Amino acid sequence: MREKLGLIGFGAFGRLTARHLSSWFDIQAHDPAATDGEGHATLTDLGTAAACPTVILAVPVEALEATLPWAPIWRGPWSSMSVRSR
């Protein structure tokens, strides 16, 4: 069984990422606008995608602020994620 990878955002960059990584990961993607995983990802809810051991944010810069409030679920001693406020 392959490791799960959460992909938040399945626009152009998310689809490109899924195509390149789907050979190595079971990709769980979340994007409210997506209707098809294109054979490279399973579309799922935000909580499922965010709970994967590896998560990639593939959202437009203008959507980061709306996306990041739930990011603390990733926080832990292993996390290298940092967020600066304006």
Question: Helices and strands in order, then pairings?
Answer:
Blueprint: E1 4-8, H1 12-21, E2 26-30, E3 42-43, H2 46-50, E4 54-57, H3 64-67
Parallel strand pairs: 1-2, 1-4, 2-3
Distance between the termini: 41 Å
What percent strand?
15-25%
Class based on secondary structure composition and strand pairing: alpha/beta
Using only CA atoms, what is the Rg? 13 Å
- Low-pLDDT runs: 82-86
Reading the helices and strands in chain order gives EHEEHEH
Gross geometry: globular
Describe this structure in words.
This protein is α/β, with parallel strands linked by helices and 86 residues long. It is built from three helices and four strands, in the order E-H-E-E-H-E-H. It has a four-stranded parallel sheet with strand order 3-2-1-4. The longest helix is centred in the N-terminal third of the chain and has 10 residues, at 12-21. Residues 82-86 have low confidence and may be disordered.
Please sum up the structure shown:
By secondary structure, the chain is α/β, with parallel strands linked by helices. It has three helices and four strands.
List keywords for this structure.
86 residues, alpha/beta, 4-stranded parallel β-sheet, 3 helices, disordered C terminus
